[in-house]
């Protein structure tokens, strides 16, 4: 488990990174830049997952271990 700062995850487009300001009552994320249209909470969840991946990538082994060539480690 890794702590991710949630600030801005609902306004940042999870596809292109464009900031899309919206009222709290708006439950849909509609990006005018890349045309992504998904639920606001789903967009935020994807952003949180992506931020966690960035934080964790430095902790994952990058070298191959004897007998484990070709095995890929996946976070999600």
What distinguishing features does this structure have?
76 residues; alpha+beta; 2 strands; elongated
Structure description:
- This protein is α+β, with helices and mostly antiparallel strands and 76 residues long.
- It has a domain at 8-59.
- Helix content is 22%, strand content 8%.
- The chain has one helix spanning 40-56, and strands at 28-30, 37-39.
- It has a two-stranded antiparallel sheet.
- A hairpin with a 6-residue loop joins β1 and β2.
- The chain is elongated and about 40 Å long.
- The relative contact order is 0.19.
- The mean pLDDT is 86.
Q: Over all CA atoms, what is the radius of gyration?
A: 16 Å
Mean pLDDT: 86
Question: How far apart, in Å, are the first and last alpha carbons?
Answer: 12 Å
Number of H/I helices: 1
Helix amount: 10-25%
Class from secondary-structure proportions: alpha+beta
Helix and strand succession?
A: EEH
Shape: elongated
For the largest sheet, list the strands in their spatial order: 1-2
The biggest sheet amounts to:
2 strands, antiparallel
